[in-house]
Design a protein that fits this description.
The protein has 417 residues and is of the alpha/beta class. 36% of the residues lie in helices and 19% in strands.
Length: 417
């Protein structure tokens, strides 16, 4: 049975939480494989809206979740997620990889300090400690959950941290160690072999949803460096970050909005401002789930999406927020960058200098709650012809099927094409 990877095709905030929860109906396990508490997956339930930062949002449907070793683990945030999720849907089983690297108060403090030191060149991190945790991991100075729980002598490691960073921020190694050990004990009963768990579910005929954080353009290697996150965000990271082989992944679902957003600094070729951007931002509630920051708004960018679909070997596209664009007289698609072909621009400077070439298209009538209900019942053919033209033009440009269309915030506000 399938291993399905849900991956963002833009700069994050595409609606992966809703998508994962929708696709996970009938699945047996939800897996988070990358990122940390800098991610925020928001899911709208009939009676509440949940924003989860460590647990995969697909666990709303599966009630069984795993945190892979590719995740930068903030234990306090995970415990808050568990409490919120169980209040909403009942008991949820959680298994955490012992190899996950821990985010401690030191890394959180360093994140803020480094951003401060960048001055006007700050990259707009969420200040959740993710970058410094990655720095320690790849510098082989990281602290893993298993190291704490197995009673390894990590005092010398923390003393190295002190020598490195004690002159940069206030840092008490004994206090940090005491806090980390206390938190680790709280999750001792959740620790298990995530890779074996996934293989067991797949071998027994279950469906596993691998849920990514952030988006393709924030990938540490393939994104708009240095305005990126500190992990791999493409589909291949699902295997690496959860401990399974590539053959465990059968379907890649790429998630994109019907427009584009970005949080923080960095190049954004199709960015717009003014009344239209304000309308889209307010209708789409385009504010960060983790930070509350207003998101930057832009038209849908075909060169960027072609690049993302290629990197992820995307099989199907789930295009969200088609309802947010509804009611606009005209909508635009960037179909190319003037004078720029393949490959996609590799530097920030090159991307900042591109000139988008737009195709302007007819808008479609407002999709309100009554219209959502009609569309849910009648399906794709009931969509306004202008909306269908827009979606079909996206398919034509990308050479990839738009299989799912989001028409509202709820998990079931979806049309299957």
């Amino acid at each position: 049975m399938p291993g399905i990877v849900v991956v963002g095709l833009q700069w994050g905030d595409e609606g992966k939480g809703k998508v994962s929860a929708y696709l996970a109906r009938g699945a047996s396990l939800a897996v988070r494989f990358n990122g940390g508490a800098n991610a925020g997956h928001t899911v709208t339930l009939p009676d509440r809206t949940l924003s989860l930062h460590m647990l995969p949002a697909a666990a709303i449907s599966t009630k069984s979740a795993a945190i892979g070793h590719g995740v930068y683990l903030d234990i306090e945030e995970m415990l808050r997620d568990i409490a919120k999720l169980e209040e909403a849907v009942g008991k949820v089983g959680v298994v955490v990889s012992p190899r996950a690297h821990l985010v401690t108060p030191l890394q959180v403090g360093l994140d803020a300090k480094i951003e401060e030191m960048r001055g006007g060149g700050s990259i707009g991190t969420t200040r959740r400690g993710i970058g410094p945790t990655a720095l320690h991991k790849y510098g082989r100075l990281g602290l893993r959950l298993c190291d704490v729980l197995d009673g390894a002598d990590v005092g010398d490691l923390v003393k190295v941290w002190m020598r490195l960073w004690g002159g940069v921020i206030p840092f008490n190694p004994e206090e940090v160690l005491a806090k980390v050990r206390g938190l680790a004990e709280q999750v001792r009963g959740m620790v298990g072999d995530v890779s074996s768990l996934i293989r067991t579910h797949l071998a027994s005929g279950g469906t596993v949803i691998f849920e990514g954080a952030q988006g393709t353009m924030l990938d540490i290697d393939h994104g708009t460096y240095p305005y990126v996150t500190s992990s791999h965000t493409t589909s291949a990271a699902a295997a690496i970050g959860s401990g399974v082989g590539l053959k465990s992944i059968n379907i890649v679902v790429g998630v994109a909005k019907a427009y584009t957003t970005r949080v923080g600094a960095g190049p954004f070729p199709t960015e717009i401002s003014g009344p239209v951007a304000d309308v889209i931002r307010e209708r789409g509630s385009e504010y960060g789930a983790t930070t509350g920051r207003p998101r930057r708004i832009g038209w849908l960018d075909m060169p960027q999406l072609r690049y993302a679909c290629m990197l992820n070997d995307t099989d199907q596209i789930f295009l969200t927020r088609v309802d947010t664009l509804s009611g606009l007289e005209r909508v635009k698609l960037c179909v190319k960058y003037e004078g720029v072909g393949e490959p996609y621009p590799e530097t920030v400077e090159a991307l900042r200098s591109v000139k988008p070439v737009y195709l302007e298209m007819e808008g479609w009538p407002r999709i309100d709650e009554a219209e959502r209900e009609r569309l849910r019942l009648e399906g794709y053919g009931a969509l306004h012809r202008a909306a269908r033209r827009y979606l079909e033009k996206v398919e034509e440009e990308l050479g990839t099927a738009v299989k799912y269309i989001g028409i509202g915030p709820g998990i079931m506000d979806v049309i299957v094409k």
